[in-house]
Amino acid sequence: MSERAAAYPRPPALLPCKRHVRIEALGRLLADTYRSLRVLETFHPPTFYLPPKALDLSLLEPAEGRSFCEWKGFARYFDVVAPGPGGEPRRLRRAIWQYPDPTPAFRELAGWYSLYPAAMEGCWVDGEAVLPQPGGFYGGWITSDVEGPFKGDPLHPELV
User: Residue 138 has what pLDDT?
Assistant: First the structure.
């Protein structure tokens, strides 16, 4: 089954998902779950949100700053931190975010986590490696069952 990002709604849809999601970062298993929420927005690949129980929260440290989404509200960020080979800490800055108090339409996201696939060592959905959404600003997860074009792709500057 294939989905077209151009056919996703605006405002975005929030859908439960039972696909297997696995994430590795800094040589560690960060998440492994069959329970997630997907946000589907026009011209964006899906963004996966994971429940707190699915993540190794010991690897997260609060990061400074926040951002605002017109649909979901204010997001806060986290660094992923783990000891390196010599014991020195390695850090992925602002690689994970959550909406602690989202808008009513997205209240199910409260406290769940999402991340930038490009910052991780690997993200997989049902065993398939995820490609990050182009552009570095967005956190979409591209798999073979999602068709573009996608916002952020330099080949499609009209999708700003």
Answer: 86
CA-to-CA distance for 99 and 109, rounded, in angstroms?
7
Number of domains present in the structure of the chain: 1
17 SS3 class: strand
CB of 30 within 8 A of CB of 59?
yes
Per-residue confidence (pLDDT) for residue 32, from 0 to 100: 98
Tell me, what amino acid is at 96? I
CATH number at residue 118: 2.170.150.40
Q: What is the 3-state secondary structure (H, E, C) of 71-140?
A: CCEEEEEEEEEEECCCCCEEEEEEEEEECCCCCHHHHHHCCCEEECHHHCCEEEECCEECEECCCCCCCC
Q: How many angstroms separate the CA atoms of 72 and 159, rounded? A: 21
Find, among 65, 120, 79, 73, the residue nearest to 101 by Cα: 73
Residue 81: CA count within 13 A, CB half-sphere: 13
Cα 17 from Cα 135, distance rounded (Å): 25
Q: pTM, whole model, 2 decimals?
A: 0.94
In a domain, 158, yes or no: no
**The domain containing residue 88 runs over which residues?**
3-147
In tens, the pLDDT along 91-108 reads 999 999 999 999 999 999
